[in-house]
Amino acid sequence: MAQKKVFVTNNSLCERRVLDAARLVRYFKTNGCLLVAHPGEADYLIFVSCAVDRPKEEQCFKIIEQLRSFPGELIITGCLGDIAPTRFRKVFSGRYIAAKDVGSIGDMFDSFSVSFSDIPEVNSTTEEFIPSPFQLVGSNKVISVALRFIGEFEPSWEFARRCAAYAAELGRDITGKGCRSLRRMFLRPGQDSKNRDVSRGLVRISTGCLGNCTYCSFRKAIGPLTSKPIEVCLDEYQRCLARGYRKIDFVGSDVGAYGLDRASSLPELLRAFAGVENGRRPTWVLWDFNPVWAIKYKDTLLEFIRQGRIGTIWCSVESGSSRILGLMKRYADVERIILTLNEFKQADPKLSLHTDIIVGFPTETDDDFDASLDMIRRAGFTFVSLFAYHDAESAAASRLDGKISEAVIRRRLHKAISFHKRHRIQHHYSKLKKA
Question: What is the CA radius of gyration of the chain?
């Protein structure tokens, strides 16, 4: 039987989908498939989609259109099919697996000897090479060759240089994204081309979510909260320690809710992690942290913050208006959120606080929006992701009256950007199409 050739890609830096893509790469490699870096070479094209906002959603559909032009079978997983199901089924009639069901991909490859559930979780975004869906020419042909031999060579910058030199001899462009892909693929874990430490491990402690936010349509794709057993988390954590990672991110869609589905809790998990370190003390990053858990577990978090253990908390507040938060079905005591985060910053002024803010939620007034900017300033956030509200097909908020026009949303985004620049707050924003 001919060796199956597989192309796996994703469209986002979202850790959850990147980890899914990397584990899929490992699954196919373990079962004897040849991973290729150009979709034109593949028998199967696996696209791990992320549609976190409207621009990402549009990006997904463009990638699907692009990938459908190649002869291999396209299989899509991730969240797109649940966030925009009507449009998705109009443009794609092939096989789709929701993010929560990614393990069922084995049903499509029943001849494989190793099941997806037997593939260890990946604990770094650099453990497996995942080609960009936008980089379909140039150095990818060379990377495809290198992928066949990467298990036989020690990853190093020198090896990357030799691949680049070989690409140049072939007349292929190895500048820009191509060169960065080579670096990402061949550098030793924890190093860049100048041997500086950039090490970062990832431990996915749970999947799914306990929330029922009215703007969100992800829950159907990711499912209810499912926490990993503590012993499984500890095993992955110890793998990260053994690799020398100095920063370890705890990944999930509702990190603070860890353990509530199995008579445990996040504080119990953090103490378990601290108990196996044997003098190694990596910095922790808490992703996707609902403010309700920051308040509920404040004392434990303060204990670890004072010890310098927690370097970043991504506390997704979404709005500074209690009225809007009520409509979102989010935790709505803004003053208590601010006071709690202020205590965190007082415990360690170097603590990095990140948040997400939705701009233009239905019925949001200028005063509501200004309250969000005021909350950002008073809480001491160091990084803010701004998302322009849009009606997700299956979200409850799509049925609310009082929709805000794109012109108003655009004006508020520009005001927020100016505000962040003025206060020297790092920020990212989702772009609207030009009027």
Answer: 22
Please identify, among 197, 225, 244, the residue that sits at the C-terminal boundary of a domain.
Answer: 197
Which pair of tokens denotes residue 427? 């920020």
Residues 19 and 159 in one domain: no
What is the SS3 assignment for 115-163? CHHHCCCCCCCCCCCCCCCCCCCCCHHHHHHHHHHHHHCCCCHHHHHHH
Evaluate whether residue 435 is within a structural domain: no
Looking at 100, 122, 144, which one is the last position of a domain?
122
Inter-CA distances, 204 with 49, 172, 236, Å: 18, 38, 9
DSSP class of 356? E
Question: pTM of the predicted model, to two decimals?
Answer: 0.85
Query: Do both 95 and 161 map to the same domain?
Result: no
- The model's pLDDT over 262-293, given as tens digits with 9 standing for 90+, comes to 999 999 999 999 999 988 999 999 999 999 99
Tokens 């000897």 locate to: 113
Question: Does some domain include residue 128?
Answer: no
Residue 195 half-sphere exposure, CB side, CA atoms within 13 Å? 1
Give residue 218's pLDDT.
Answer: 85
First to last CA, the chain: 54
* Domains held by the chain: number: 3
Domain that holds residue 142: 136-197
Residue 176 CA from chain centroid, whole number? 23
Residue closest to 186 by CA, chosen among 164, 161, 156? 156
